Structure formats: C-alpha cells, structure tokens
Amino acid sequence: MTYRILSLDGGGIRGIISAVILAEVERVLNQPLNQYFDLIAGTSTGSILASAIAIGRKSEEIIRLYREKGARIFPYQGRFSPQRLGLVFQYGLSAPLYSDDGLIKVLQEEFGSTKLSDIENPLQLMIIAYDTIGRKPIVFKSWREDQDFFNIPLWEACVCSSSAPTYFPAHLLQTSSREYSVIDGGVGANNPAAAALAEALRLNYSIQDISVLSIGTGNSDRPFPWKETRGWGLAQWGWQGRLIDVLFDASSDIHDYITRQIMTSQDSGNPDIQRYLRLQPDIMSFEIDNASPGNIANLTMFSRDYIAENQQVLKNFLTSNK
Question: For residue range 84-124, what is the model confidence (pLDDT) as tens digits?
C-alpha cells in the first residue's frame, strides 16, 4: 500500500498558486485531501495550507483565505509606508517590514483553539520552523506525543513557520520546558519534501512504497547578473526582498534535488508508476507580500493556465498512486 506524502512550499501570498493547484488535485481525486494523503508537510505559507487541509478545509476555502484575508497579513507595499511608522518607532529603521498582528489574528480566526495534537490519526501533519536560540530546526509533528510542541495551538505552529526574517518579527514560543525564538522554516527547508521523505523512511516505509507530490509557489526567473551582484552589500541584497527571494528559491531547488535523487534511485518495479512529482511553475511576479487584488487575480489566472498545461501529468500521477 502506498504511503502518500503531500509537500507544500513557502512563498507568502504566492501560496495561492499552490491552493489553485490543490483545487485541481481535489477535483481529480474526488475526495477530501486529508483522506487521500498520509503525511502532509508544509513550510511557511505551506504550513497554513497543510494545516487547513489537515482539518478538512476544501481548496476553494483556502483560496478565499488568500483572496479575502491576504491584505490583512500584508497590509501595504514598501518600507516607506506611513502604516509602518509604529514599527520604526519601536525597533528603528531596520524594523521588520510588517507587524505580525495581522498574521496572528487571521490564523487564530482560521484555526481557533485547534491544537497540533487534535489532528486525528492516521493523518500526520508536519510543519517546519527554525529556532534562533538553539540554532536548530523545529519540526512540529502532530503524532509525536513526546514532543515539547505536541499541544501548541495550530495557529501558533503556523506563525512560527511563517515568520520570515525582514518581513515579520521572530515569534516567541513558550512551552512547559523552555522558550524559543522562532523564524520561518524557509531559511532551511522552504520545500519540506526531503524532510517529509526522511520522516517516512524513519517510520519504516520503503522507498518503493512512498509517493511524493511536491507543490511550489512559483520559481522566480528574475536574473541577478554578475556585473550587478559582485558589488552588492547588505542594502542591495536586502532591497525588495532580493536575498530572501534567492535563499528561498535555492532552498526549494536543493530539497527538490535531494528528494528526486532518492526517489528515482530505486526501481519501483513498475515503469508505469511515477513516485515523485514536483509542480513548480516559473513566474515573473516574485513578490511574496503583494496582496493587492490585481496581483492575486493574476496569480490565480496564471496558476489555472499552468495546471491546464500539466493536467494529464497530474492525473497520471494521482491515479497511479491510489
């Protein structure tokens, strides 16, 4: 029996790309996603998608979340917005771009009092974040009762995973044993596919019995020529999220490489069965915080065009791994 993994990348408001792709996955399967997949892993905006799926939300509901509440998470554009003055007065000119108030309130509305431990077996939910005190990744696991984070609210696990440096403040997570200063899991694994695969192997599933559907939020095709980048320092790399853009894209691509190498190194015994599928469109709109109605509409249209081009590939993958 196939152990099915769904992996969801980070990418801010570009998570709507993943949500549109997930709507097609749901349509092809004709069943709730939390009943088809065994392990759902997410980083950053992917953690929000993964959590929503885990509690039974339909993809169209998740699309509406981005469309209707995205502007509360990213309420303005640019570091010189008057709405940012409160952060500047509090932290200085190097303050994060946004307060996390909107992010926290939206996630509390979406997930309420649901805890990580409330995810019902056999479904497993996995969320990636990073602790700046212990200087180690945090992997929230819904099935690990012995874990320090087992009973934290689901909304807080998502805030931890989504607190992207320079965009949001680090999140203070307090458990019964200690406190953590947590930032976006995308600094290490913006694409959590390899981490999810490692967990499946640790749970004693063999490669031949695992399938992985990995969905990205778009790969920026914006080039940074050598003649420009050779002289860039902190200001230039920090401008308009250039450094985060490169770091998160690089992280996603490296984890895709690792997952692909492991998954294709073993012959499944049936050449007609594809065990790994990565859906990651190339995009021109690289901003992860542009929640304007126009940008969301463009990302939605773009995603629908992408899935139309890859519809048969997706259908073949899903039907061969039932």
Answer: 888 888 888 788 899 999 999 999 999 999 999 999 889 99
Neighbour count for residue 38 (Cβ, 10 Å)? 19
DSSP letter string over 49-88?
A: HHHHHHTT--HHHHHHHHHHHHHHHS-SSSTT-GGGHHHH
Phi, psi of 96 (to 5 degrees): -55, 155
DSSP string, 105-153: HHHHHHHTT-BGGGSPTT-EEEEEEEETTTTEEEEEETT-TTSTTTTSB
Condensed to tens digits (0 to 9), the pLDDT of residues 184-205 reads 999 999 999 999 999 999 999 9
The number of angstroms, rounded, from the C-alpha of 128 to the middle of its chain's C-alpha atoms is 9
**H or E element that contains 215:** strand 210-215
Q: What is the dihedral of CA 79, 85, 91, 93, to 10 degrees?
A: 40
For residues 129 and 135, the answer to whether their CB atoms sit within 8 Å is no
Cβ-count burial 127-144 (b if 16+ within 10 Å, e if not) = bbbbbeeeeeebbbbbbe
Alpha-carbon gap, residue 182 to 130, rounded angstroms: 5
Q: In this structure, which amino acid lies at residue 100?
A: D
Residue 184's beta-bridge partner residues? 129
CA-nearest of 136, 266, 261, 115 to 189 is 136
Residue 317 is encoded by which pair of tokens?
């993958």
Q: What's residue 239's pLDDT?
A: 74
